[in-house]
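Retry 2 of 3 after timeout on previous attempt. Resubmitting structure tokens to design endpoint.
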């Protein structure tokens, strides 16, 4: 049975995405990067889970010192913008889950071409060459398995409208990994008319908003403070589940996929080392590090530890919320939250 599932998933993903050939990095780039000898990147990646292992692996492979600053996505964008305006660049590379449009429009991010780009699906890379995803994340509900029996798991979003869920659902407000992302998923997936009708009914369930990180919201569900959380990154739920926590994510449709974008700064002190770091991150070797850490890699030929983290493996329809889609709709999604849920 397990072998059949493995074969099935291989066929599914081969049909969905073209498998990429091994990319050859220009030896001249490697030589120029080694001459610079250093790279600095700003990132929201968790330090011990991903940022430090990625830097260490790059250092071990190329002998180039890799330094990182771990800050949230909005702080990454603000810091890169401020350095650009002050004409004093420190970062060579950045990753961010939001605000990439501000960096490209301001001139703080520069175009580049990655030899690994063919391995990353359309929708996860900028056709103009300013960014490419290093990982993706899928938003799904999560339930405490001590409080909710499998027979009571919602089989659809409509099931959440049952009176038994009133006052038992929590989410993070004003964030893509939270209420904003959930509202975006519903409106993009159901359409405005049907989506707004559902959200108006959901608002009557008295959803609790926690002003904290998505990880802290998940921890509250694990601790049994709440039965369910909405718009959880399913890979984080899966990591906790594998470690024995009483939590389970639910594959419901519609499903939205967000990405973390990776780019190069215009004022990079080490432009060649920066590009080489991007290439390493996007290589199969680099993406395997994301996989081992429990993330969902951006490359189509490196599946997550649990392939079912990807909607297609569950037979679910999904859509990628590209940065331009998020920028176009974010204010509207936030407005809907304020109108219905505050």
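Retry 2 succeeded. Sequence:
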């Amino acid at each position: 049975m397990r072998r059949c599932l493995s074969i099935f998933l291989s066929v599914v993903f081969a049909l969905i995405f073209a498998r990429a050939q091994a990319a050859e990095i220009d030896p001249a780039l490697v030589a120029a990067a080694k001459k610079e000898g250093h790279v600095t990147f700003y990132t929201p990646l968790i330090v011990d889970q991903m940022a430090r292992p990625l830097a260490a692996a790059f250092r071990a492979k190329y002998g180039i010192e890799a330094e990182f600053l771990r800050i949230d996505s909005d702080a990454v964008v603000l810091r890169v913008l401020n350095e650009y305006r002050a004409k004093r660049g420190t970062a060579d590379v950045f990753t961010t889950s939001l605000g990439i449009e501000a960096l490209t429009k301001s001139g703080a991010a520069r175009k580049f071409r990655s030899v690994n780009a063919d391995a990353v699906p359309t929708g996860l890379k900028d056709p103009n060459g300013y960014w490419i995803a290093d990982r993706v994340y899928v938003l799904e509900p999560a339930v405490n398995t001590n409080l909710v029996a499998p027979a009571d798991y919602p089989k659809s979003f409509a099931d959440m409208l049952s009176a038994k869920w009133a006052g038992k659902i929590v989410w993070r407000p004003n964030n893509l990994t939270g209420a904003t992302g959930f509202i975006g998923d519903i409106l993009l997936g159901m359409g405005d008319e049907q989506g707004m009708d559902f959200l108006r009914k959901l608002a009557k369930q008295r959803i609790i908003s926690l002003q904290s990180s998505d990880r802290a919201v998940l921890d509250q569900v694990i601790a049994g403070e709440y039965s369910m959380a909405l718009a959880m990154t399913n890979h984080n739920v899966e990591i906790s589940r594998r470690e024995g926590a009483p939590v389970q994510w639910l594959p419901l449709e519609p499903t939205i996929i967000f990405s973390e974008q990776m780019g190069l700064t215009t004022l990079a002190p080490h432009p060649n080392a920066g590009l080489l770091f991007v290439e390493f991150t996007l290589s199969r070797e680099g993406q395997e590090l994301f996989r081992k850490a429990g993330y969902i890699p951006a490359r189509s030929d490196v599946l997550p530890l649990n392939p079912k983290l990807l909607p297609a493996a569950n037979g679910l329809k999904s859509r990628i919320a590209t940065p331009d889609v998020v920028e176009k709709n974010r204010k509207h999604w936030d407005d809907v939250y304020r109108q219905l849920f505050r």
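Attempt log closed. The CA atoms of residues 180 and 335 lie 9 Å apart.
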